[in-house]
Amino acid sequence: MCVFCKIVKKELPAKIVYEDDKVMAFHDINPQAPIHILIIPKEHIETVNDLQENHKELIGHIFLVAKKIAKELGVDEKGYRILINCNKDGGQEVYHIHFHFFAGKPLGPMICK
Questions:
Q1: Which of 73, 77, 88, 84 is nearest to 110 (CA)?
Q2: Residue ranges for motif Histidine triad motif (predicted)?
Q3: What's the rounded Cα separation, in Å, for the pair 11 and 1?
Q4: What confidence category does residue 112 fall into, taking pLDDT thresholds of 50, 70 and 90?
Q5: Count of alpha carbons within 13 Å of 73, Cβ hemisphere only?
Q6: What is the number of other CB atoms lying within 10 angstroms of the CB of residue 19?
Q7: What is the distance between the alpha carbons of residues 5 and 42, in angstroms, rounded to a whole number?
Q8: pLDDT at 104 over 70
Q9: In the structure, what pLDDT confidence band is assigned to residue 13 with cuts at 50, 70 and 90?
Q10: pLDDT band at 111 (very low <50, low <70, confident <90, very high)
Q11: pTM for this predicted structure
Q12: Contact in structure between 33 and 103 (CB atoms under 8 Å)
């Protein structure tokens, strides 16, 4: 069982900031910004490549949760970034799709070299 599934089942601790029947959001244990939250579906989906037509509503829901978190944390007007990695070369380390929510400082443009 993956580490995120264990967090969903409350077998591992996490600093949860949001939870409903479809998704969970919690602070990243290795933050890359002052605010670094992971938003995950409770359903185990390994990568973006594994998404199906029936996941459209779930993915839309994740973005609405991100919007809600931004408002609750007071960063909705200043700005935030949402990032998702897919597979090894895309930077994915945990094979359970997760959306990184970054905020709390100016993030600047992303430049890939």
A1: 84
A2: 96-100
A3: 11
A4: low
A5: 24
A6: 14
A7: 7
A8: yes
A9: very high
A10: low
A11: 0.93
A12: yes
92, 83, 81, 12: which is closest to 45 by C-alpha?
Answer: 92
> Which residues, 6 or more positions from 1, have their beta carbon under 8 angstroms from its beta carbon?
9
Q: Which two tokens stand for residue 5?
A: 């599934």
- CB 23 within 8 Å of CB 79: no
Question: Is CATH 3.40.630.30 correct for 3-103?
Answer: no
Residues 29-80: pLDDT tens digits?
999 999 999 999 999 999 999 999 999 999 999 999 999 999 999 999 999 9
Q: What percent of the chain has pLDDT over 90?
A: 92
**E strand or H helix at 34:** none
DSSP 44-102: ---SGGG--GGGHHHHHHHHHHHHHHHHHHT-TTT--EEE---TGGGT--SSS--EEEE
Q: Which of 55, 61, 98, 100 is catalytic?
A: 98
Length of the chain: 113
